Amino acid sequence: MSLTYCNVHFSQQPEKVVYISNTLMKSLNLSGKKNIQLRLGRDSIHAAIKTIKKPGKHLILGSAVRSGIHVPSAGGVYIRNLDNEFHLGPLIGVLSDGPTNTSQPFSSRTGFIKQLLREGKKKCYIFAFTPRDINWQKETVNGYFLNDNGSFYRKTVPLPDVVYNRLPSRKAETSSSISQLRERLGRKKIPYFNWSFFNKSDIYRLLEHDNTVNQYVPESHMNPTPERIKDMLERHQFLYYKPSGGSLGKGIYRLTYLPKRGYFARYRKGNGNVLLRFSSFNSMMRMLQSRHGRSLDSYVIQQGIRLVEIDNCPIDFRFHMHKNGSNRWVVVGIGAKKAGRGSVTTHLKNGGSLLTPEQALSRTFGSRSDEVLQNAKRIAITLAEAIEFHHQHLLGEIGFDIGIDQDEKVWMFEANAKPGRSIFSHPSLRSEGKASVEHILEHCLYLSKFRRRDAE
What's the domain count of the chain? Predict the structure, then answer.
């Protein structure tokens, strides 16, 4: 396979002709050939070749060629020779959803998607789309592209070379239409990452028998019996009781047992934190049953860990992991989250605050802070590799909630297949936010095979 970067231009000539500069002809080993099979995404067209004397690598498409394979725009893009079919691209689709007929078609994700499209335009054809935008009969997508002034415009393009999944919710992902979409893309061998949100219980189950990483996962049980909860409280003193499919800290309880004082439940209610004391274990369980009923069947109980603290407030860390252009896991960004006073979690919406890892660790480990951080990074990469090994679908990014206890041991509390990006709002982490976008694009190039192997 040969791969090169060229400038695509459009001609008003109606015939099926591709005009190619001499330099590009040589790069693609087309010298002496009179015809070309040109492809974009899933579309392909046969066209005549005419050479032009223009310095540099240029490709000028006649209007019949442009419309025949739905080339969305002129500009710089890759072209590769694969078995004498010349493939423009890659064509990358970002799948999400949101309201129709609005300037924010992807709701709160619109800003992030615009950032992806803005950066991606420099190296590929990239668009966003919703499940409603696919025409399966014609194998086309009515995609959202970004123009130079930052506004969306619509173009019909072929099915893409790779799909980056940023669907907004578990509900959207578990619908029959999305299951069918994934199945159809799979049959067409179109890479699709990340497959779906993780459930907490699934991740614990994947890792519990893996001796390379299970030492980093707190003891956890899905749908525990009251007897199990009581036993764990007596052994660990405090636990986290949380919904398996939850996010943003919603529905989480911190349960504590102090032998001479009783049982305590701390949780978030509205904009405040609640702390309740119970004289008996059974009375605490009755409260939980009355608040949640059968939904407790999808709760997970997890061993509590004594984390390092600042100002008597525990700290944990969000590790934003990416697959890079060489298909290897790397740590791209780390945010330290300090819990608000009395809060069950470190979530920023629950009163938590964001620090850089260096700020947090220097206050807790002093001169050893860099050594502690490097160890946590190594463990995070090992955890990502283990999840990918046991998970049966393509992964390209993971967000880990990681804790470090007072003995410097690293613990993984949660793994998120579609991590939020709030850590990148910290002024010192904005460059990491940009690097995160670049890693997503580089991994798309890898999955679509529009990447030189000698660049790895």
Answer: 4
Whether 172 and 42 share a structural domain: no
How sure is the predictor about 32, in pLDDT bands with cuts at 50, 70 and 90?
confident
| Cα–Cα nearest to 90, from 385, 445, 433 | 445
Q: What is the pLDDT of residues 93-128, one digit of tens each?
A: 999 988 876 778 898 899 999 999 999 998 899 999
Strands 238-243 and 299-303: antiparallel
Clarify whether residues 153 and 82 are in a common domain.
no
Q: Which of 275, 349, 336, 271 is nearest to 309 (CA)?
A: 336
pLDDT at 411 over 60: yes
Mean pLDDT of 32-37: 90
pTM: 0.88
Last residue of a domain, one of 248, 282, 303: 303
Within this chain, do residues 244 and 176 fall inside the same structural domain, yes or no?
no
d(CA 372, CA 399): 19
Tell me the pLDDT tens digit for each residue of 189-231: 999 998 888 887 788 888 988 999 999 999 989 889 999 999 9
Separation of first and last alpha carbons in the chain: 16
DSSP state, 340? P
Asked if residue 328 and residue 443 are part of one domain, the reply reads yes
Asked if 329 and 299 sit in the same domain, the reply is: no
C-alpha closest to that of 421 among 442, 402, 452, 397: 397
CATH code where residue 74 lies: 2.40.40.20
Tallying the residues shown for the chain, one arrives at: 456
One domain for residues 291 and 342: no
Residue 146 CA to residue 128 CA, distance in Å, equals 9
